[in-house]
Amino acid sequence: MNKTAYTYLPSSTLDSLKNIELVARSLVEGGMLGLHRSPYRGFSSEFSEYRKYSSGDDVRHIDWKTYARSDRHYIKCFEEDSNLNSYILLDTSNSMTMQNDGAESPAKFNYACYLAAAFMYLAHKQHDAFGLYTWAEQVDNFEGCSNSLSHLTSQLKRLEKLKPGGESDSEKCLSRIAELIPQRSLVLIFSDFLDRNENFIKPLHHLDFKKCEVILFQVMTENELKFPYRGLVRFEDLETAENIEVESESCRSYYLEALRNYNHRLRMFTEHHRMVFETISTATPFESALLAYFSKRTAMY
Q1: What's the pLDDT tens digit per position in 236-276?
Q2: Reduced to 3 states, what is the DSSP secondary structure of residue 263?
Q3: Fold category of 11-28+84-300 in CATH
Q4: 170 vs 105, which has greater pLDDT?
Q5: Where do the domains of the chain lie?
Q6: Is the pLDDT of residue 33 over 50?
Q7: Which of 26, 119, 122, 282 has the greatest count of CB atoms below 10 A from its CB?
Q8: 118 three-class SS
Q9: Confidence of residue 43 (pLDDT cuts 50, 70, 90)
Q10: Full-prediction pTM beyond 0.90?
Q11: Which residues lie closer than 8 Å to 14 by C-beta, 6 or more apart?
């Protein structure tokens, strides 16, 4: 692959990802060879257990040494290596256009695209199939799940063409996506998760029921996380165009407390349903954010 071909997958990112392997902590299912352990018994590389021979079993898998000792036929069973299906969910609503004024850090949407491209590349690198869902007011066209180079190329080109816009209807869209994603998949969600309706997160319970591994990446600007404003400030809702004027010093503590409480509720929900919730600032170089996350993941699993 040409290291300079895509905006969201620059050579610096490829260099950072060389030694990172995206391996799910849970059992996965599938038929292709990869880095992940399947819950199904087969006859591949790693021994699992013996079981008694049954009519119809392939005699090639009989352990004749055990037969010589016990005069009984046993089959050697192995665990199959399997690929992991990964699904990347990207919020394309207008709130993702938020960017720090006068700062070099990218908009939330662009930052999320950098992260999404990195995970696509990692999945392809280790022969895992992946697919990309995008949503705002509705779920956009899904182009399938594959681990081919042509699929990686087409999805990177798709990222380049995406433009954020519209209001977010996360509850409806995530509910639809959760219905479509197969069980035991890895699901990576990139959004600011700043939804007026906190019920948007409830459809994700369906993914827990399907035994998927779900990771929520909350992408936020430094201004949203720290509220550094001074004096009288006018804010505009990027999705509804509503305006509000506030005295920043008097409402800073209230805003930061409300944000902490909101994220705490999201984190409690995700932990209860065995998901991971990570907040990332766009001021952090995304290569550094990836390396920090995988270092933490390695320590956890």
Answers
A1: 888 888 898 989 899 999 999 999 999 999 999 999 998 99
A2: helix
A3: Rossmann fold (3.40.50)
A4: 170
A5: 11-28+84-300, 36-82
A6: no
A7: 282
A8: helix
A9: very low
A10: no
A11: 1, 3, 121
Nearest to 158 by CA among 122, 131, 197: 131
Predicted confidence (pLDDT) per residue in 129-151, tens digit: 999 999 999 999 898 999 899 99
Six-digit token string for 181: 């994603």
In this structure, are residues 186 and 119 in contact, taking their beta carbons and an 8 Å threshold?
A: no
Q: How far apart are CA 154 and CA 171, in angstroms?
A: 28
Residues β-bridged to residue 248: none
Burial 43-68 (b: 16+ CB within 10 A, else e): eeeeeeeeeebeeeeeeeeeeeeeee
Kindly report which listed range (199-203, 270-274, 286-290) carries the lowest average pLDDT score: 286-290
DSSP letter, residue 242: -
Sequence-distant (6+) residues with CB within 8 A of 68 are: none
Joined together, the tokens standing for residue 186 give: 């890895």
| 90 three-state secondary structure | strand
Q: How many residues does the chain have?
A: 301
Q: Which two tokens stand for residue 297?
A: 């993941």
Q: How far apart are the first and last CA of the chain?
A: 31
Nearest to 270 by CA among 221, 196, 218, 231: 218
Chain centroid to Cα 115, Å, comes to: 9
CA distances, 269 to each of 10, 168, 195, 208, 262 (Å): 35, 20, 15, 11, 11
Q: Cβ–Cβ contacts within 10 Å for residue 141, how many?
A: 7
Helix boundaries (H) for the chain: 11-16, 64-70, 108-125, 149-161, 170-180, 205-209, 222-226, 248-272, 286-300
